[in-house]
Design goal:
Length: 214
């Protein structure tokens, strides 16, 4: 099964995709993570992408598609987190026969997004996601799982969050319409904490699976 997670930054796409990977064996493909890795490793692609990412703007399609193709196994089960971000990226999936079975639109209020992202901290070693208030680590600044140092993403600062939300709003309506027209769109309320949203997501995916068999 191939799933696309759509939703504003802070909707919980990364957390849900990680849970689907751990519990259901999906491969989690986050274009944001792949691009951040290119930036960290200071590759030519990373240097180009960085200029857009630090301003909260979308990276040009050609660069994103290049990292995606390098990392996606089109024949396995995967969950795409952060891709596609616009219609031309959605068409690229279709044209390459790696289109998803279901696109999940995660619905969440702006105020919740801002609070989630500004408090988000990430382990620099294992990638585990924390929140200063909702899910703090036992020891400040240190990952409970592997002892790695926690950091804040450059683009999780409030002024950049606002820009990312604006970009999302501009692109998402069309994208949501695109999947609705193809009868692939499902909505999930993502205002509650991760486990509750995960439960709703599994319910929606289960319904979809049942329909498919009949
Ligand atoms: P994310 O981790 O999904 O919030 O992505 C972080 C940043 O990476 C975004 O603000 C964009 O600059 C860039 N990015 C990630 N995925 C894409 C994509 N599919 N298309 C264009 N830019 C992307």
């Amino acid at each position: 099964m191939k799933i696309i997670l759509l939703g504003p930054p802070g909707a919980g796409k990364g957390t849900l995709a990680k849970l689907l990977e751990e519990r259901k064996g999906f491969s989690h493909i986050s274009t944001g993570d792949l691009l951040r890795k290119e930036v960290k490793e200071n590759t030519a692609l990373g240097a180009k992408a960085k200029k857009f990412m630090e301003k909260g703007l979308l990276v040009p399609d050609s660069l994103v598609v290049e990292v995606l193709k390098k990392n996606l196994n089109p024949n396995g089960s995967f969950v795409l987190d952060g891709f596609p971000r616009n219609i031309s990226q959605a068409k690229m999936l279709e044209e390459n026969n790696i289109d998803a079975d279901t696109a999940i639109s995660l619905k969440v209020k702006d105020a919740i997004v801002i609070s989630r992202l500004s408090g988000r901290r990430i382990c620099s070693k294992c990638g585990k996601i924390y929140h200063l208030v909702n899910m703090p680590p036992k020891k400040e600044g240190v990952c409970d799982v592997c002892g790695g140092a926690l950091f804040q993403r450059e683009d999780d600062r409030e002024e950049v969050i606002k820009k990312r939300l604006e970009v999302y709003r501009k692109e998402s309506e069309e994208l949501i319409g695109y999947y609705a027209e193809r009868s692939k769109l499902k909505e999930v309320d993502a205002n509650a904490e991760a486990e509750e949203t995960y439960r709703k997501l599994i319910e929606v995916l289960g319904e979809d699976g049942k329909k498919r068999k009949n």
